[in-house]
Amino acid sequence: MVELERSVTMVLEEKLLLGTTVAKDKTEQLREKVEELHKQGIKPKLVMMRVGDKADDLAYQRSALSRMEKVNILSEVQEFPNDVTEEVFLRQLEENNQNDEVHGILIFLPLPKHLDLKKVKECISPDKDIDAISPINIARLMNAEECFVPCTPKAVMELLSYYNIPLQGKHVVVIGRSMVIGKPVSMLLLNENATVTMTHSKTTNLQELTKRADIIVCALGKSKFLTEEYVSPHSIVIDVGINVDETGALTGDADTEQILPIVKAITPVPRGVGSVTTVMLAKQVIESAERGLQQK
């Protein structure tokens, strides 16, 4: 009986698409790229601009700083009080734009309501906008042009590529329509010739759509939303959600424990997409530094 349980556990674990594995391999590759840039006198640098001290922002900041250190990217955190004036914030953003030693700028969102997000998005240099909030980068993404893209959607694509999951001709259902994840990941999938259906919490036949899909990207922001009624044995589930349940435990948008025995594969939370996101942040800082070198 013990051997049987162990065998079942091993089979289930083989279904997990671990982001931690992807992150480890990609981190090594990025460190080598940074070493090459150092040899040419370029030291990639990331500047993070944070207003206030929200717990989510601080958690992501710690994760980003840790990843930058692992790949030997310089990093700086510029902290602002919650009541920072728009003039002060935009002035500092413009200084970062003009600073040749800064290759990537990350602005923690959402900003306080008194700061005009539209002005901030229009002010940030598209060439340093490594989380793609600039309307210029969004337009480039929509036109399938080379550009920076939001790091979490980029992490989804990197994970699919790493595990050799084909996209061409496959039906992908994206649950969620935000500009942070849902819309950009849909465009990235379309650019890889997937057939994409974008859905949301108000979609009436959602279970029918997801059961027929080859791949489900769940980015709704609702803990354990995706249950057994939404999946089938051929489902590959990419769980982008990061939530905290009533017990304080970290959960995804999918009820992994319930659907793992059913689906073909799934990314866990934690150790899934989130593990790859800061790697993509570092990757885009390096790409910015490389572009700067080519322009010299």
Structural class: alpha/beta
What profile does the largest beta sheet have? Answer: 5 strands, parallel
From the alpha-carbon coordinates, what is the Rg to the nearest angstrom? 20 Å
The shape is: globular
Helix content: 40-55%
Number of helices: 11
- Order of adjacent strands in the largest pleated sheet: 5-4-6-7-10
The CATH class of the largest domain: Alpha Beta
CATH architecture of the largest domain: 3-Layer(aba) Sandwich
Task: Outline the low-pLDDT stretches.
Answer: 1-8
Give the beta-strand count.
10
Query: Under CATH, the topology of the largest domain is which?
Result: Rossmann fold
Strand percentage, roughly?
5-15%
Helix and strand topology:
Elements: H1 2-13, H2 19-39, E1 45-51, H3 55-71, E2 74-80, H4 86-98, E3 104-107, H5 117-123, H6 135-142, H7 151-162, E4 171-175, H8 182-191, E5 195-199, H9 206-212, E6 215-218, E7 236-239, E8 243-244, E9 250-251, H10 256-259, E10 265-266, H11 273-294
Helix pairs in contact: 2-11, 3-11, 7-8, 7-11
